């Protein structure tokens, strides 16, 4: 019953761009055959028709979602996607360990994530249903709770440890928030777009939801009648594995992370989640430009047409600038390595929040069961979650199946930690077989470091510049970026069509 989820020339020349124009470092050939609304039936682009030109910066799921929804709204728009890396996907990426590939970034999709589920179906991908794993909550001395494989027994164990009232209260607040959050889908279907995160949150659930971004999860839970024990154990464990943080994060982000507790179907994409991005770009007929880091956006005005346009500049590259009618930023501006600037955008965010650094370490070896106060390896849960304890070097340890759902013959574990783990750290938990494989470490600027009251960057940074990742300060997840992407697409459409 209990599962945890982890929960982007001149204006005159611009408007005349034909579909056969060549662009810098074109990685994907521009196709003039585009698909209408449902992106399934082909239609020839009317070359006499004016093409608006939109740039999307970032090819993670936020940028790809923006491209997909913009193409649905504007069959004739020209979309150029710029990605600084040599691959698409951003925080969705895989890592090879021995003969197997594993998710290294965003991994778990919940069946209620309507956009991501739909992206999977529409782009012909298959789910990789996660095998049943039992989790345990470890406090650096012993497991305070271990999930049982038998549902009813597990339910009774939870009741016994935490009591029915507090579990009921926790579920109630999570479910109510989820239900309100679902409003976003119909609002976006009616092409409702938001200039700020605050407007979006209030529209889906009133002032209460906005208030959740101003209070800590622990405070909200206590006020709702949830016990401290449940907060310190189960809820803390879920926040540590999802966001590498504690229950002082904003309550909205915390509730999004906890939503998976009631999850009955968690999955990832067969072959790797990054494929969603690759496939979305393909069905959205974009020009994808890899290895292109945008360093600045300049707002310009064409006196002859009386139109605003935007000039993109490339990092370490003196080539001529490229102009657009509209720009979608689908990368977190507050992440430490982001160099993107705009000097004359009206609402460019001045406050830089901080981003949480997370290390994902992959280890092949046998767990030292006695370290966890267990009598045998079988007694150790396959997914070790943790309570807040400064002595613990990791936030979670989980046995991994690969991107095709195959469990390697010799078990591979993924550890999340705040610091790079050294061999001694690993040897305290594992009998390491160094002859086997290297121990890949993937370093992430993973999610915003949440800090109440949250201060949000706007979605609308200028007349024609829209920001997907403003939504991440409320909560970070694939589905959140997909929602931010659709919002940016609708804002772009409304701006270009006015
Ligand atoms: C370890 C980890 C585990 C996670 N687990 C889950 C999970 O289980 N479930 C879930 O739903 N979410 C999870 N997440 C969160 C999820 O992965 C992210 O919220 C989501 O992928 C963010 O997508 P995005 O497109 O908004 O940003 P990103 O994926 O970061 O994409 C931004 C892109 O922009 C590019 N870029 C940046 N600057 C520039 C520039 N100047 N010019 C050109 N390109 C640029 C970057 O290279 C990147 O490709 C996890 C994240 C991490 C790190």
TrEMBL record:
Record-level GO BP terms: prenylated protein catabolic process; prenylcysteine catabolic process
Top-level taxon of the source organism: Eukaryota
UniProt cross-references to PROSITE patterns, sorted A to Z: PROKAR_LIPOPROTEIN (PS51257)
Keywords, in A-Z order: FAD, Flavoprotein, Glycoprotein, Oxidoreductase, Signal
Keyword Glycoprotein in annotation: yes
Cofactor: FAD
Keyword presence, Glycoprotein: yes
A Pfam family: NAD_binding_8
Residue ranges of every copy of the Prenylcysteine lyase domain listed in the record: 145-495
GO MF term list: prenylcysteine oxidase activity
Assigned protein family: Belongs to the prenylcysteine oxidase family.
The name this protein goes by in its record: Prenylcysteine oxidase 1
Species annotation: Hydra vulgaris (Hydra)
């Amino acid at each position: 019953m209990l599962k945890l989820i982890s929960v982007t020339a001149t204006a005159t020349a611009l408007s005349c761009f034909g579909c056969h124009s060549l662009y810098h470092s074109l990685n994907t050939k521009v196709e003039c055959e585009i698909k209408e609304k449902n992106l399934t039936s082909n239609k020839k682009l009317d070359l006499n028709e004016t093409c608006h030109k939109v740039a999307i910066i970032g090819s993670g799921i936020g940028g790809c979602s923006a491209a997909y929804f913009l193409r649905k709204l504007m069959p004739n728009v020209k979309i150029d996607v710029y990605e600084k890396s040599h691959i698409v996907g951003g925080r969705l990426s895989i890592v090879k360990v021995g003969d197997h590939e594993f998710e290294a970034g965003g991994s778990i999709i919940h069946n209620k994530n309507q956009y991501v589920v739909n992206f999977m179906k529409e782009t012909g991908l298959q789910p990789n249903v996660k095998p049943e794993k039992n989790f345990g909550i470890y406090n650096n001395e012993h497991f305070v709770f271990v999930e049982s494989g038998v549902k009813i027994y597990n339910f009774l164990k939870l009741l016994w440890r935490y009591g029915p009232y507090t579990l009921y209260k926790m579920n109630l607040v999570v479910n109510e928030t989820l239900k309100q959050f679902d409003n976003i889908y119909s609002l976006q279907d009616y092409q409702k777009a938001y200039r700020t995160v605050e407007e979006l949150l209030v529209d889906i659930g009133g002032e209460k939801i906005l208030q959740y971004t101003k209070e800590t999860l622990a405070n909200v839970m206590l006020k709702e009648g949830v016990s401290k024990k449940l907060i310190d154990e189960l809820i803390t464990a879920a926040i540590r594995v999802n966001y590498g943080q504690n229950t002082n994060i904003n309550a909205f982000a915390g509730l999004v992370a906890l939503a998976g507790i009631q999850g009955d179907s968690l999955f990832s994409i067969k072959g790797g989640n990054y494929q969603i991005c690759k496939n979305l770009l393909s069905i959205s007929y974009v020009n994808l430009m890899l290895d292109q880091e945008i360093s600045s956006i300049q707002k310009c005005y064409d006196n002859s047409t009386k139109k605003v346009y935007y000039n993109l500049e490339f990092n370490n590259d003196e080539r001529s600038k490229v102009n657009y009618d509209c720009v979608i930023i689908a990368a977190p501006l507050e992440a430490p390595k982001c160099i993107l600037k705009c000097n004359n955008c009206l609402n460019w965010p001045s406050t830089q929040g901080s981003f949480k650094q997370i290390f994902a370490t992959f280890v092949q070896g046998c767990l030292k069961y006695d370290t966890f106060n267990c009598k045998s390896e079988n007694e150790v849960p396959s997914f070790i979650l943790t309570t807040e304890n400064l002595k613990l070097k990791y936030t979670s340890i989980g046995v991994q199946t690969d991107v095709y759902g195959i469990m390697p013959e010799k078990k591979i574990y993924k550890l999340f930690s705040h610091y790079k783990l050294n061999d001694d750290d690993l040897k305290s938990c594992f009998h390491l077989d160094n002859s086997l494989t290297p121990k890949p470490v993937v370093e992430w600027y993973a999610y915003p470091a949440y800090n109440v009251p949250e201060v949000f960057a706007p979605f609308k940074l200028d007349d024609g510049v829209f920001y997907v990742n403003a939504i991440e300060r409320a909560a970070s997840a694939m589905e959140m970026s997909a929602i931010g992407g659709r919002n940016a697409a609708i804002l772009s459409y409304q701006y270009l069509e006015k």
